[in-house]
Design brief:
The protein is mainly α and 163 residues long. It contains 7 helices and no strands.
Length: 163
């Protein structure tokens, strides 16, 4: 039958080639995507690559000494909040986080030892106002958020400003 209808043979070959390409593309994207519920790999995040890389550099230079690794909290000072998916940071709005970065721990430092059992000798968060730009803070937050699960990022985006 294919011998009698060469155009059918060409269509069949084209359909098979398209199906094969789709399968290969699907396998490649499945291998590069993190499993559902897992944090996004900063290196593979094409959408915010420049911001994430800059945020990583800033975080390592200005935040990591106290808060530890952005994903695991490894190396954090006792009582300093960790920012990964096991931490509490994703419960705060971007505006709250920005204010904490700009103004330091302030009033919150007095509440934290009682609320969270933080040792009273834990250093307070310094104010970064005048030292970090709005773009710097946005980059740091983007880097921290890359370590959260998609569900944590969704919930954090819906979190209202707290007073």
């Amino acid at each position: 039958m294919l011998r009698l209808f060469p155009s059918l043979r060409i269509r069949t070959l084209l359909l098979a080639a398209c199906a094969s390409a789709a399968i290969v593309a699907s396998c490649a994207s499945a291998q590069s995507a993190p499993p559902p519920g897992q944090p996004t790999d900063v290196a593979s995040d094409a959408a915010g690559g420049g911001q994430l890389a800059g945020g990583e550099d800033l975080y390592r230079a200005d935040c990591q000494a106290c808060h530890g690794d952005a994903r695991t909290g490894e190396g954090a000072l006792a009582g300093a909040p960790v920012h990964g998916s096991t931490g509490h940071t994703w419960h705060h709005s971007d505006q709250n986080l920005t204010e904490i970065i700009l103004d330091g721990s302030g009033e919150m430092a007095a509440m934290m030892p009682d609320m969270m059992g933080i040792p009273p000798e834990t250093p307070r968060m310094p104010a970064w106002r005048g030292k970090l730009t709005d773009d710097d803070i946005a980059a740091i937050l983007a880097y921290i958020k890359a370590g959260w699960t998609p569900e944590q990022r969704r919930l954090q985006a819906e979190t209202p400003m707290m007073r």
